[in-house]
Amino acid sequence: MSFSPLIRQLIDALRGLPGVGPKTAQRMALSLLERDRQGGLRLAEALQQAMEGVGYCSRCRTLSEAEICELCSDPRRDDSLLCVLQSPADVWAVEMAGSFRGRYFVLKGHLSPIDGLGPDEIGVPALIERLEGSAVTEVILATNPTVEGEATAHYIAGLLRPLGIRVSRIAHGVPLGGELEFIDGGTLAHALAGRTLIS
Amino acid sequence: MLPSPGPAYVLHTRPYRDSSALVDLLTLESGLQRAVWRGARGQRRKLSPQPFVPLLVSFTGRSELKTLTQAEVAGRFALLQGQTLFSGLYLNELLVRLLVAGDPQPILFAAYQLALEQLAGGASVEPILRRFEWQLLDNLGYGFSLTEDAGGQPIEPHQRYVWHASDGLQPLFQPVSPDAGLSGAALLAMAADDWSAAGTLRTAKLLMRQALGVHLGDRPLVSRSLFARRPPSSRGDLQ
């Protein structure tokens, strides 16, 4: 069956979302049109408002509709700790964990030379600028535990050490509840290299 | 019957659709190979496509873009950190930029494998990079003699030389300064794989920059900027 141009347009737009294939997009479109037109209009309005109203925090560069996001304007947070992450989604992940009370800084991804993404492109100069004259005494590098994430962390650490700022890296290795037998060699190699003293 | 799995390394990964990845692989059998790695980014993935891990892989597909049907770890993970990690990324960028897809490069594959092992083993970084650059140029058909000049005369240790893309090394008869051009002694040391003198590394870097530059074109190698220990807006130098 071929759909009319407007329905086709709606299905194609929904297909642009992550995790949405052609069948799911078709079901969503038909569900909105047949059973929930009000919901469809609310969705359209929410999308438009978010696309036009959500920008980036000028301080930490996470998604925000205010010039300074809620996390940056919260006076109860620890100004001496700065956690550096790869994306706004990572900020939410750390916040959900509930154990970090410092500030954040979001890079534009990770170093990827083959994609033409060097230090300038991912926002390292903005990080240096953020640290100049700040109260930060420790920077926690929480880039992903991938080769590119590691390279990003090493690069930033090399720049920050001369500034007299303590630089730490989030631990990675064997997951809680994991069994050594089933863990890949790369993860085990990192876990052994980053081992900690018990006493 | 499906082809048997062959040795490979992931050079680069980029996200593709929801949970897959487009990977550039250096394979023993077909050189640079681009493929779709299904489920590479899903939470249920068995193996994540990471560089510097020796793999055994097999593909299907007739087009230039293959589909990965099997991937398993085939050896020890080369744990690269700091400068050695940047060096590994530099090697990968060189390969992706200069290799032609589907052109088998077994000697280069072995050279890459050895370079990773040496980097992971803590050997001095610069000789490893210079040696690999030279092997890369040579295997792509861009090599030139380090023991003879363009006219077929032996390289003289006390002579200075200039390199030309068209015909290789030529004597520099009236150097502007004593250290202008390339030292004959350093060129001979390079040919003998002797990196003990500091001047050899300096000459090798200069020569490799020139020789690679011809084939890299105007777009700079981004990985070179990682070796800088200066704020990033001022571009760094490799080592």
UniProtKB/TrEMBL annotation, chain A:
Gene3D superfamilies according to UniProt: 3.30.60.80, 3.40.1360.10, 6.10.250.240, RecR Domain 1
Xref: Pfam families: RecR_C, RecR_HhH, RecR_ZnF, Toprim_4
SMART domains: TOPRIM
Record's keyword terms, sorted: DNA damage, DNA recombination, DNA repair, Metal-binding, Zinc, Zinc-finger
InterPro entries according to UniProt: DNA_Rcmb_RecR, Rcmb_RecR, Rcmb_RecR_Znf, TOPRIM_dom, TOPRIM_RecR
Organism domain of life: Bacteria
Purpose: May play a role in DNA repair. It seems to be involved in an RecBC-independent recombinational process of DNA repair. It may act with RecF and RecO.
Family to which this protein belongs: Belongs to the RecR family.
Alphabetized PANTHER family for the sequence: RECOMBINATION PROTEIN RECR (PTHR30446)
Protein name per its UniProtKB record: Recombination protein RecR
Organism: Halopseudomonas pertucinogena
Name of the encoding gene: recR
From TrEMBL, chain B:
Record's keyword terms, sorted: DNA damage, DNA recombination, DNA repair
ATP-binding among keywords: no
Gene3D superfamilies registered for this protein in UniProt: Nucleic acid-binding proteins, Recombination protein O, C-terminal domain
Superkingdom of origin organism: Bacteria
Keyword Transit peptide: no
Domain (DNA replication/recombination mediator RecO N-terminal): residue spans on this chain: 7-75
Primary role: Involved in DNA repair and RecF pathway recombination.
Family: Belongs to the RecO family.
Name this protein carries in UniProt: DNA repair protein RecO
Organism per entry: Halopseudomonas pertucinogena
Gene, per the UniProt record: recO
